[in-house]
Amino acid sequence: MERDGRLRLTVTDASDVLPVVRETGPEDDSGRGLPLVAALADAWGAEPRPCGIGKTVWCELRCTPASPGEQYHPDRSRGPAPTRREDRAAG
Known about the structure:
About 0% of the residues are buried. The model is unreliable at about 75-90 (pLDDT under 50). The chain has 2 helices and 3 strands, in the order E-H-E-E-H. It has a 3-stranded antiparallel beta sheet with strand order 1-3-2, with helices on one face. It is of the alpha+beta class. The protein has helices at about 35-40, 85-90, and strands at about 5-15, 45-50, 55-60. The chain has a domain at about 1-20 and about 30-65.
């Protein structure tokens, strides 16, 4: 994670074709990943690799660090994260 609270993800492959967001149909075998990245990321892009073979696709997500002792809740609307039976018995 960067100091400014951004998480940068990169994926590299050997194809020189730069990605383009496109609409997909129900019968398409590919093309769904980049629209998800574009919808969820705060920024994304692609660039040719310096070695001349392939490209790197990247995206950045803003992250808010958790407070000390705070649990991760993927969907806060559902309330607190469930605890394991062993955790309840020990408390």
